[in-house]
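note to self: dont lose this again. the chain is below, predicted strucutre after it. 204 aa total, dont forget to put it in the shared folder this time
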Amino acid sequence: MQVGRRCGAEAVVPAARGAGGADLLTTVIDLLREVGYDRMTIDAVAARARVSKATIYRHWPGKAELVADALRQRQTRVHTPPDTGSLRGDLLELLRATAAICVADADLMQALTFAMRTSPELERLIRHHVMPAGRVASTAVLVRAAARGEIPPEAGERDLFHDLAPALTMSRVLAHGLPADDEFLTQVVDQVLIPVLCHRSPQT
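---
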């Protein structure tokens, strides 16, 4: 495909900052990396962040809610890729950012995958609050492409795209241990993502 070708539940509590400028939610992420979800305790978070347990419990009912909010805040800090002027360029920038996150957060992702299997409450919170936050950047890319007329307006509602974009990159980096370089990312964009987004459902 040539460049530029056109084709026809409950809220999570906001973050709280600890004493001395320490970011409590960053502390949660650091502890998850170090010891995993099961071994991480509210006591450890309070001690590392230099806040009282009472302060934590005023904002979060328990560990699952605290972890989910830390992850959601981390997701929303991922910047939307710059507007390159084309869907193809935007998708490449989006996948480059995704690949960088996979490399940086490989240990965190593995710990959370295991934790979701052992904690139904954490699994529910991640699926309902964290994963939707991860779609903000990809949705912005699709809104821009639809405005340019590169994809049909309904393409942004396709769950297949939102699942494929991170899944293929994560599989490459985490499962196969291979680099998600530009050659690979270009193949994903040209051979998978753009065809999915340009697909028009038959008229019924």
